[in-house]
Amino acid sequence: MTRRGRTAAAGVFLVLLAGCALPDAPPERAAVEAGAAPGSAASQPPPHRRWGLASPLSPRPSPLRHPRQPADGLPPVLDHVPTAHKVVFLTYDDGAEKDPRFVDMVRELRLPVSMFLTDSVAGPGYGHFARLRSVGASVQNHTLDHAALRGLPYAGQRAEICGQQRKLHARFGVRPHLFRPPYGTYDTTTRRAAGDCGIAAIVLWRATMNADDLTFTKGPARLRPGDIVSVPSTETTTPTLRERTTRLLRRVQEAGLTVGRLEDYV
User: Fold this and answer.
1) pLDDT digits (tens, 9 = 90+) for 71-95
2) 25 and 52 in one domain?
3) What three-state secondary structure class fits 229?
4) What residues contact 70, with CB distance under 8 A and at least 6 apart?
5) Are 21 and 112 members of one domain?
6) Which parts of the chain have pLDDT scores under 70?
7) Is the backbone peptide bond immediately before 239 cis, with ω within 30 degrees of 0?
8) Which residues form the domain of 135?
9) pLDDT tens digit string along 94-113?
10) How far is the C-alpha of 204 from the C-alpha of 80, rounded, in Å?
11) 90 and 202 part of one domain
């Protein structure tokens, strides 16, 4: 090949190489080719992308507590929190699902979730909930045995509520101040027993995150500021708790809201 031919061939090679430059490479590959080690923070997508969200959750506003004490002096019953803040509250029931990756999700997205635990369900796996507490989740009371309380005598209701208070205090060193009655059923005796066990408020819910979408107990079928959302345990493995949480967070963002910490408001 002549000298001129070699020069022309080299030019063609450079043009072809430019067509394979970094901008067309996948983000992780491009980061690696730019000098980031595989698996390093620089080569990973941001947390919201890793968990299936198009954008980060909006920052939480500063806490704004509105304590409400009914005239009868018993703990109030709440399915939403009256607040002007554009927040909703994520609550998880029972403790049957113990997916370690959910701990990662709570940590990476900084989700201020509230876990209402039943001893007979969560008890064998309290270590999982200790890990959730270490990344910002709170632990609250959902009775010892998940009994329907309404209509039971005072002694029975007190045993269910106070018994779980003692269990959680022994395991985590905290005495919960929020209580969720199983199945959402309660009566005046429930409120009296809860108050005697150190409970400040009985927490129900206005919205439930099911396998596919939200359902609402009353009012408009859309999320509103102050709504308490229940994410119950399921008997099926799909969709996973992480998948249901991602779907819920998308609905929260579509409504122009973010996730608040329930314990900061009640």
Assistant:
1) 888 999 999 999 999 999 999 999 9
2) no
3) strand
4) 76
5) no
6) 1-43, 64-68, 235
7) yes
8) 47-58+65-264
9) 999 899 999 999 999 999 99
10) 8
11) yes
